[in-house]
Amino acid sequence: MFERFTEAARSVVKGAVTHAERTDADSVTEEHLLLALLDLRGTRSAAAFDALGVSARRTSVESALADARRRGGLTRADTEALAGLGIDVTEIVSRVEAAHGAGALSGGRKPKRRWSSHRPFTRPAKDTLERSLRVALGRGDRHISDEHLLLALAARPGVVADVLADHGATYTALERAVAGGPSGDARAS
């Protein structure tokens, strides 16, 4: 499937690995794919982010992703469902962090020994890459580009889609913005 990726899409995948390495993450996640997309310039996804004002609020996006990690990766829907059962996620996070330290639920624990510098993609990140192919084919495109990866992220329920939606980048808004973006295939800057 990687042979169908355009230069921009390959830059996203490589950038996601770089983000994972930079944060010493054990694996490459959807969050890393989103951050790599935010790094691009001169592409359809970059134009969509600019049109929706997401690029200007990168710090807010990163903060929202960090907050979700702090909650153990629970989505807004998960948090609301638990609240409906009388479970206050904020209170639970506070208690866990009081007992085990800040970020205890963020999955930051490392294995005792890493035998390889290779960082595998998580199942949700792999699903996003596979979904990008379906998005491309559904739009009549033969190649997978950065906009297909972005639309695949927005289409898949989860923290990344929640964060995008909270910043005005719903699937529908992104689809409209991508349609008006440049056709260039620039690399990340």
Account of the protein in words:
The chain has 189 residues and is an all-alpha fold. It has a domain at 2-73 and 123-179: Clp, N-terminal domain (Double Clp-N motif, Orthogonal Bundle), CATH 1.10.1780. Helix content is 59%, strand content 0%. It is built from ten helices and no strands. Helix 7 crosses helix 8 (146-155). The chain is globular, with a radius of gyration of 17 Å. The relative contact order is 0.23. Residues 183-189 have low confidence and may be disordered.
Comma- or semicolon-separated keywords:
protease, peptidase activity, 189 residues, Double Clp-N motif, single chain, disordered C terminus, Clp_R_N, Clp_N_dom_sf, Clp protease N-terminal domain-containing protein, mainly alpha
Mean pLDDT: 86
| Rg computed from alpha carbons, rounded to a whole number of angstroms | 17 Å
Estimated share of beta-strand residues: under 5%
The CATH class of the domain at 2-73 and 123-179 is identified as: Mainly Alpha
Low-confidence spans: 183-189
SSE string, helices as H and strands as E: HHHHHHHHHH
Number of strands: 0
Helix content: 55-70%
Indicate the CATH architecture of the domain at 2-73 and 123-179.
Answer: Orthogonal Bundle
CATH superfamily of the domain at 2-73 and 123-179: Clp, N-terminal domain
- CATH T-level fold name of the domain at 2-73 and 123-179: Double Clp-N motif
Globular, elongated, flat, extended or rod-shaped: what is the shape?
A: globular
Euclidean distance between termini CA atoms: 25 Å
The secondary structure category is mainly alpha
Our count of helices gives: 10
Largest sheet: none
